[in-house]
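User: Modeling request: complex.
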Amino acid sequence: MIYDLKNLRFAYSNVKRNILDNVSLTLDEGEILCILGPNGAGKSTLLNCMAGLLKPNEGEIFLCGKKMSSMTFREIAQKISYVQQSHNPVFSYPVLHYVTMGRAPQIGLFRKPSAKDKQAAWDALAILGITHLAYKPYTEISGGERQQATIARAIVLEPKAILFDEPTAHLDYGNQLRVLKVIKDMANRGFSVVMTTHNPDHALLLGGTVAILNREGHLEIGNYKEIITEERLQGLYNTKIRLLTVPESTRLTCVPPDL
Amino acid sequence: MCLKPGNTAIAERQHTRRWPINILLFIALLLCMVWSMCVGKYPISPKESLLIIFNQVLGLSGSYEPLTVSVVMGLRLPRILAAVIIGAALSISGATYQGIFKNPLVSPDFLGVSAGACIGAAIAILLALSSVYIQLFAFLGGLLAVGITVTIPRLIRSDSNIILVLSGIIVGGFMASIFGFIKYIADPETQLASIVYWQMGSLSYVKLSSILGVLAPIIVSALVLLAMSWWIDIISLGEKEAQTLGANVRRIMYIAILCSTLLTASSVCLAGTIGWIGLVIPHFARMMVGTENTKLLPAAALVGAIFLLMVDTFGRTIGTAELPLSILTGIIGAPFYAWLLYKQRMKLQ
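Assistant: Request completed. Predicted assembly structure:
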């Protein structure tokens, strides 16, 4: 078991309500977990807790059987990678350099990446099929390519799990699907994946486990077939969403109501 | 989907071809040093000046005119060494500040470090303390200034580049007033002149002994920063991202701030405040070798050393009276920075 979250409660110091209330979940090796929830429900907060950036007020997170509260950033970073929402870095490093940074948890403070670290970065670029971007400045590639480069950085240390915070945000439809495909590939390679998304179709496409976080901070978790129901989606997004099977396909698809 | 090893090798070679730039820069620096040694009101041939230095360093007695020896050893050599050391120190310091504050707009001047160091030195002079204390006070003054500058954006919970720059302006302005007050109460007969000298920035009165005094802190700080230059890249991604990459952000920031402030303060101790170098040179070096701090820091040090040496040599040879350094660095630095802004189309947030 990679993750074991036990009865987490989290509240920001300046807000009264609980963002997370008695949240428990587990994550196995190679498992995909999609977290759905309305805007402001606290999906990112949950991921930040799982990445060790935020400390829960109550409860405990176990990462590979170890209490996370007793681990340093470095120890955590050797086990998991966190792909945060994309942003524009001030200095545009070449993609290869950017990907090599993923090796940082294994590199000492007064050291530089070795040839082995560089090779690992090349291998990660090759896995994502973006070796041609190696020397392009990170800020001058497209949003989809940037997300791929970030995923390459996330796998370069071969972590146990990768956390994605809205990996499809700011991407066009084609790039969204390509990134989802990459995420599914990563799960097939044995990485556990946790991702947040605004789109229930993404959860249906990826299959696996789905968790729904509501505004009260409660989490419902289970197999996607049990969790994603018309009733839940309608309640979650406050809209008359239908779940239908298109004749040409075997899987369920969300169909929004007419406007 | 495996990468052919051949491709990697070719790509790596193309990539590492950038390295010789530093060797070229180093040769250029040596040539500049020889040039600066020879020109001036008392021209000396390159051969003669080099022979004198060799003889003096090895303790041999050559048959040279005492005047030539004293010009080389007493005037030009200390001045050249000081220009090289200060140019390199300020450039490394500026590049580090820009990296760790992920802000290409900051520099030792804009963060108030130079002004703070200047005040520290002035207070030590006012108290008639020895040169070791002048150095210590300059360092503490610089640290205090950068501390305040960094705290203001934190207090208002802002991560914006502009707010940090504004905060630097606030601190700089405040420091200027304190400095004015120090000048006001200083003894015009004995202290005022040396305090003003610190403010103006000049290499005219640098002695070999004072260079030796700041050499150790400068070399140690520069080596520490060069050794951790790869981690400066990681810090420049932002605090959260750096933490998820396993960085101990606070520790790296503290070490980097301490070392760059020590570099700036040591430069101030040697020659007073010299503007623009810490801001402009890192940008110029970035255009030559790229943004990675592992390459940028050595390149910036070399470019900064060449720049300050050339500016100082021009300043002392261009006319009958010496042109103050700050005039020349400003005249070159300010338009150059404007051009860089235009060229890089820097996105300001």
